[in-house]
Amino acid sequence: xxxxxxxxxxxxxxxxxLVTASAAAQGTxxxxxxxxxxxxxxxxxxxxxxxINKANVKSLKAAWSFSTGVLNGHEGNPLVIGNVxxxxxxxxxxxxxxxxTKEGAPMIWKHVPAxxxxxxxxxxxxxxxxxxxxxxxGKLFIELLAGDLLALDAKTGKQLWRVPNADYKTGSTMxxxxxxxxxxxxxxxxxxxxxxxxxxxAYDVNxxxxxxxxxxxxxxxxxxxxxxxxxxxxxxxxxxxxxSTWQGDEWQHGGGTTWGWYSYDxxxxxxxxxxxxxxxxxxxxxxxxxxxxxxxxxxxPDNGEAKWLYQMTPHDEWDYDGVNENVLVDLTIGGKPVxxxxxxxxxxxxxxxxxxxxxxxxxxxxxxxxxxSKVDLATGLPVRNPQYGTTSKKNTEGICxxxxxxxxxxxxxxxxxxxxxxxxxxxxxxxxxxxxxxxSAGQPYVGAIVRMFPGPGGNRGRFIAxxxxxxxxxxxxxxxxxxxxxxxxxxxxxxxxxxxxxWLKAVDATTGTLLWKFKTPSGIIGNPMTYLGPDGKQYVAVxxxxxxxxxxxxxxGIGPEDPTAALGAIGAFGDYINIxxxxxxxxxxxx
Length: 591
Ligand code: CA
Prior knowledge:
591 residues; mainly beta; five-stranded mixed beta sheet; four-stranded antiparallel beta sheet; 6 helices; 35% strand; disordered N terminus; binds calcium ion
């Protein structure tokens, strides 16, 4: 049946189409659009759309699909700007523009960036990319794995400029979605497993010219810290802690890479992101707090200057990268309004932080953490369990969470209606042994043998609803495999998430009750999103194509024989090769 016939439902529908199309055409981020990675700069992944609701979601059906032609892990989500959907792929990071006004959404253009195949083995955990960013002048930006930041004309797909930001030959790659703030595009860097010194860099959207660069480690001048990094905590006060909390020149290849999600508060004019593990996973080689790895940064986007920093895991012993999303929400805590930032760290704690000054208000475990008993709110420091220190004990067994965290990059969603976070998690623990390693540019700088395995209960994932004002889970859904894709919350009280088996699920935001599911061709590690089509109807879209760290066995063809392969992920997911095949398909659902 012709889909256009279904759309022509009379005058009311036609009028709605016109209004929607003209409002959307400007790319202003209207209710029906999805113009940046988390829909809004606060990264809430919340849509005001309500056509698909608890009563009718059971009739949600596949409307159309699209293959990217790439069979590595597909993280991130497409954007919808006006009547065009922009889809990205894993390496070689192809960008597609699809025409939503036409039946089946045919391609308007595709851009295949030239990239050297030699960059592929330099990526730690499959060849993922987390998406594109858009500037209202009609420009798209994507970070290419081999290290270039690429600007495209959104109308034609033609290259506007391309500048080097990383260099795979030195072990630095790029995988995260950049953020556009005003007339700047800010890019991060990957390579925490290669001794890369983390940093963020801002470029002029029109010329690609570098405007500023701020490092994660080193002297305050390089990190762009003025005064104390965070006056709330003694451990964060003092000069040049990015040097003095390391031994010798270890800070120069100290990791702290910046491959996670970026959020922005236009009122405070601060953007937020965080840094990954310190260089070499072997903690014995780097005594000290190793600042500013594992740290949340609040920076002024105009000049990069830091407003505050907060380090979650000083002297990391477990590869608990701090890069997970920092979601900006306005909460009431103890009767007082709080401009909050909520962060579910790989180390297993869910943090609620005052985003104006970096003071931690709530920090509670969102899974069965055992490396620390709690976070002391007076000092801001985790209270470690001495049983699990590798510094005193070379081979440590049974640490929870595993290096992959109770949550990795898979972003949570927040509903201002229920005031709850919806968090896809891993339930994985590990054995960890530090081994001596020497730094050599472009070579792996891991220095640990890791074996992961399912956490308590045997289920490898949970999807939870979390109250950020008290730090407690309201409900949870157990998943056999990790819930390794992102979440989407809608104003109609629905929450969508994908599973590694390949199910896209819709649950009741209040109770977690399953209301609908669909089996996609591969495992889902991407993020569901929703938009209003030119026909005035609501759609839900998600990328299906397993990979990333958890799915590396399938994406890279690694068998289950060695549980320490893929940096230990095979120990937890070795059977997965018999559950899912690689893929790279966008699926779109409608009523
Ligand atoms: Ca890492």
